[in-house]
Design brief:
This protein is of the alpha/beta class. It contains 14 helices and 17 strands.
């Protein structure tokens, strides 16, 4: 396991901590938070620092602003009251902190915790600009990274800032992510099954290569399965696939066989002529009619996947089995969610990560029925692939 300072290694008394969190929560059209999970999971680090005599500067991004200044819909004003509610005292927000005459003390003399306005209102954040990092670093004595979901990004607040801080550590959320991912990957428990879905093989080549050396079973669903089926000579109709990765898929299947890893692809698909066409038909996954596209895995696929999942003692799941956001094509993802939860209840260890997989768990109210839900999608995949993340490597002892 990578070695990084944790909260308990640091003396926060009479110190100012600059805490990078991932409070990028979803908002409705009225800018109300629709899912507070990321804030709920990240707030304990803030509480720990306060309880141990320190003061906190919270920094985060929210949404995808243009990087050209203030945008109301992405303002952290939208989440400030909820943070205050959790901490049980008022938190102030600082709008213009990247100016020459700005003094953080004017705020910290009045408040124990302050919130910097959306980092991505400044283009310098995503550019990993050292001057921006240096300015942020000048506000505090200690840097705390508690934003696992952004640790694969080389941005100013997660990356170059570390060059300007003498004392660094990770918060409890990041620590829990590392502990659980390492457990999922390396604890000696078999059978170990990885379930991968989503659209593109290209997004998961490195992940598959890494998992082939670790797992017993690899279940592949979603549109990415089409590329593998096509590489084996299957007729996939008008289904989405990646022509540039046909040879890559062949090589991955060869490597899996060489490593005695059983790869399970869908044997059937629920198809229609378009994503909005509800006249669906069930086809063998290798014999889909030319004008039909695969949008979800079928009943025979689910029977097979169910057997594999329920027999597993360790499970990693990332990515949907079909077009999960469309109710008519959500059954495959929903059923896989149920199987993972059932396996967990029977004593298996399960780690879930990635937007649609996590959404399926929450939609089906299975949050308490799985072992660990990662706050990272891309970050989780990169950690699995490389054993760390760019921003965490900079913090390693």
């Amino acid at each position: 396991m990578i070695r990084i300072n944790e909260l308990s290694d640091i003396d926060f008394k009479n110190k100012i901590a600059l805490v990078r969190v991932d409070f990028n929560v979803p908002l409705d059209k009225n800018q109300n938070i629709t899912d507070t999970t990321r804030i709920d999971l990240g707030i304990n680090t803030i509480k720990y620092i306060i309880q141990n005599g320190g003061k906190c500067i919270i920094m985060s991004h929210l949404g995808r602003p243009k990087g050209k200044g203030y945008e109301k819909e992405y303002s952290l004003d939208n989440i400030k009251d909820y943070i205050s509610y959790l901490l049980k005292f008022e938190v102030d927000i600082i709008k213009d902190y990247y100016t020459n005459n700005f003094s953080i003390n004017n705020y910290l003399n009045k408040y124990k915790v302050v919130l910097l306005e959306n980092l991505r209102f400044y283009s310098e954040e995503k550019e990993n600009n050292p001057e921006f990092s240096k300015k942020l670093a000048s506000f505090a004595d200690i840097y705390v990274n508690n934003a696992f979901g952004t640790c694969h990004r080389s941005h100013a607040s997660t990356n170059s800032i570390i060059n300007f801080m003498k004392i660094n550590c990770v918060g409890d959320l990041v620590k829990n992510e590392i502990v659980n991912i390492e457990k999922a990957l390396y604890e000696k428990v078999k059978p170990f099954t990885a379930i991968l879905g989503g659209a593109k093989v290209s997004d998961k080549i490195k992940v598959i290569e890494k998992l082939i050396g670790l797992v017993d079973n690899l279940i592949i669903g979603g549109a990415m399965a089409n590329t593998f089926i096509k590489s084996m000579g299957g007729k996939i109709g008008n289904s989405l696939y990646e022509n540039d990765n046909i040879e890559v898929a062949k090589n991955l299947l060869f490597k899996a066989k060489k490593n005695n890893v059983s790869v399970y692809l869908p044997s059937d698909f629920i198809c229609s002529k378009s994503i909005d066409d509800h006249n669906v038909k069930l086809f063998n996954s290798s014999n889909i009619k030319n004008d039909y596209s695969a949008f979800d895995i079928g009943t025979d696929s689910l029977k097979l996947f169910k057997k594999i999942i329920l027999n597993s003692k360790k499970i990693i799941w990332n990515g949907p089995m079909g077009v999960f956001e469309k109710e008519i094509f959500s059954n495959g993802t929903t059923k896989v969610c149920e199987y993972v939860a059932r396996a967990t209840k029977s004593g298996s260890y399960s780690l879930i990560g990635g937007g649609d997989s996590v959404s399926a768990v929450k939609k089906n109210k299975k949050e308490k029925d799985v072992s660990f839900i990662s706050t990272g999608g891309g970050a989780l995949l990169e950690y699995i692939s490389y054993g760390s993340l760019p921003s965490l490597k900079l913090l390693e002892k």
